[in-house]
Specification:
By secondary structure, this protein is an alpha/beta fold. It has 13 helices and nine strands.
């Protein structure tokens, strides 16, 4: 959710009854402080911050989170043992994102309070194993004792119910919220997503950090280099810096990195966050009633 989930989206999700998360991965430390302060002003409800643990200024990020009194942190893309004790020692609930059983067990051992199990369908940093959400939820739920939050491909009330039926204690939604009015993504990016079809995205850049991208000129360059057995260094050079910002935040649909989940093929309208949550809850309850009537 980098370049997508700032204070506007996070506060809107919390105000509508969810748990909004500020995506710190695209923010300089003082920018994050500004977003936390604005989010506190915009909502009296709980919200959290998602922190990629590979962030280059992670010490400053964590200090700001503690200083600003954030009570919930979702960590990802790194080793949870590094910061979990520090965060919990400051009264912060810690949730870690994993994509397989091995890392789920390591995160539980590190003392995290809950896990996000992110399946292959997701748009963010994915597991190289390509395990789908439907398979991943029961695998991890059966291996750990702490709560499990399902992510990847969940963009409707029906998919939320499916995740709960498989053992999830809750769900994390990314793609559907990325395509709302409160999302900070560029309008061109949002329109490219809502007009995409099934098969429009692909999991790539596995030598670096796997991400799911809409197929565009940049993706075709990545694909060509990978087919030529390009090295990790060559891929890093092609990726360069700021590709995600270029595509998601600035709307360059050719040269930008257009990260989004498979669920984008189900979404046809840009709406307000409150409408998303209301529709998901309504559809979830209707689906439960339908099953009970069978």
């Amino acid at each position: 959710m980098i370049w997508v989930s700032g204070w506007r989206l996070a506060s809107a999700v919390s105000n509508a009854g969810g748990l909004g998360l500020i995506g710190a991965g695209s923010m300089y430390p003082e920018t994050l402080r500004e977003h936390i302060q604005k989010c506190k002003a915009a909502t009296g409800k709980p919200f959290g911050v998602n922190v990629p643990l590979l962030y280059p200024e992670i010490d400053k990020i964590m200090a700001i989170i503690v200083d600003e009194g954030v009570k919930i942190v979702f960590t990802s893309a790194g080793n949870p043992t590094t910061w979990t004790t520090f965060l919990k020692g400051n009264g912060i609930t810690v949730v870690h994102v994993v994509s397989n059983v091995k890392f789920a067990l390591k995160a539980e051992e590190a003392g995290v309070d809950a896990l996000v199990t992110e399946g292959f369908e997701a748009g963010g940093h994915n597991g190289r194993e390509e395990t789908t959400t439907m398979v991943l939820i029961p695998l991890i739920k059966g291996a750990v004792k702490i709560p499990v939050i399902a992510a990847g491909g969940i963009a409707s009330g029906r998919s939320m119910l499916a995740a709960i039926a498989l053992g999830a204690d809750g769900v994390q939604v990314g793609t559907r919220f990325a395509l709302t009015h409160e999302s900070s993504a560029h309008q061109k990016y949002k329109e490219a997503c809502i007009t995409s079809t099934d098969g429009a995205t692909v999991l790539t850049l596995k030598q670096l950090t796997p991400v799911r991208l809409i197929k565009n000129k940049f993706y075709e360059e990545v694909k060509a280099l990978e087919e030529q057995n390009g090295s990790k260094e060559q891929l890093e050079q092609l990726l360069g810096k700021g590709r995600a910002k270029l595509g998601i935040f600035e709307g360059d649909l050719d040269e930008g990195e257009l990260e989004i989940g498979q669920a984008t093929a189900q979404i046809r309208h840009i709406v307000y966050t409150k409408e998303v949550i209301e529709e998901m809850v309504k559809e979830y309850n209707e689906s439960v009633q339908k099953i009970q009537s069978i």
